[in-house]
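User: Show me a protein chain along with its predicted structure.
Assistant: Here is one chain, sequence first, then structure tokens.
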Amino acid sequence: MFRWIDVIKYAKYSNPEPIRRVEKTEAEWQEQLTPEQFRVMRQKGTEKPYRNAYCRSYEPGVYACVGCGSLLFDSKAKYHAISGWPSFTQPFNKAAVKYVFDDSHGMKRVEVMCNVCDSHLGHVFHDGPEPAGLRYCINSESILRQDT
């Protein structure tokens, strides 16, 4: 089980090695993604709260990165956090996401990115449910639910 101390260690020292790498030019990303996906995933934007595809969706499946298809979260780790965005307690596996300290907008947070293609997913906070206490607050524009 991943804990807050693990998040901080990865953000501070080194993230897990990704299973593969996907690298594209900004022009290639713009061609592949919708304008809103590009704004969120490549320019580190945030979608509107409560008005996104997966905020209130709890169907079984797995969530993959829109940019590269890597598995990021399992629906079993999704919960109703009343944050306005899809929230998860754990990543799909240890190497699914990477962590970066983010002090933008006058806040101190930990950004969550796809570990394979470096797309911005959202942020992780240490105010989630027990036992791990993590809340991965993820933009719906960055993920795609797939049936298992």
